[in-house]
Backbone:
C-alpha cells in the first residue's frame, strides 16, 4: 500500500495539470486512513477537471455493482 500512497502523492499534481479527473471505485474502508485521505484529496483536487477521467478500481469486484443494483431495485 505504500507504493499506492507514494504514487498518488507524486502523480496527482501532474494529472491535475493535464486536466485529468481522478475517481476511485471500490471498498475504501478496506484501506488505512492515510491512504483513504490521499484518495479523497486526489478526487477533490481534480474534481473540476474535464480533459479525461481516470477511474481507479481499488478493492473492487463486479459483485458490488450487482448487489447495489439489486438493493436499489427493491427500494
Residues:
Amino acid at each position: 500500500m505504500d507504493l499506492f500512497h507514494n504514487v498518488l502523492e507524486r502523480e496527482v499534481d501532474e494529472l491535475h495539470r493535464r486536466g485529468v479527473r481522478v475517481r476511485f471505485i471500490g471498498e475504501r474502508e478496506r484501506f488505512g486512513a492515510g491512504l483513504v485521505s490521499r484518495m479523497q484529496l486526489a478526487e477533490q483536487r481534480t474534481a473540476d477537471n474535464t480533459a479525461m477521467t481516470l477511474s481507479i478500481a481499488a478493492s473492487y469486484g463486479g459483485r458490488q455493482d450487482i448487489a447495489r443494483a439489486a438493493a436499489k431495485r427493491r427500494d
